[in-house]
Amino acid sequence: MTHLYRMAALALGMTALPVTSAYSQDRQATSSTNSADTLYCEERKLGYWFYCVKPVPQEEPQQPEAEPVPASQELDAITSELRELKARAILYPTEANVAAYIRFQRAQLDRASLFSDVWQRAIWQDPELDYTLERPVGAVAKKQWQDARSAERDSHGDALRRHGHPIFSAPPLAHA
Fold it and tell me: Phi and psi of 68, rounded to 5°?
């Protein structure tokens, strides 16, 4: 029964609230944001978890940007570092050297895997990049392509035998 009384009290409380238009609410919100913050944060004593004090954004110290390294040089640096770590792990097989080589190689394998995924996505999105549409690689498709190519070549050969082989030549050069 107490639940019913609570619902009735809530309904009566809702009817007692003043009805205002959205325009007047916006106007009140823009003109008195400080008074709302004061009412909400100071008078209610909400505690520290309500973020009443707005944090001041920290300015990041601006670092001068270094000139970008060309990608080919970066790739050469990665390759040389991988070779150095591999040589160190083979020549001085300590646990730290082998672990460093494994970690770096796995990072490069992850990078290669990402490249492969992006490559495949690019081919799926742009069919002009897909070489298998020009020259198929599947066994059945390859056989069909070769048969079509042979038939086209034979048709050109038949046309040459029927009409003769035209001779194209450049005009003679004038000798000085």
Answer: -65, 140
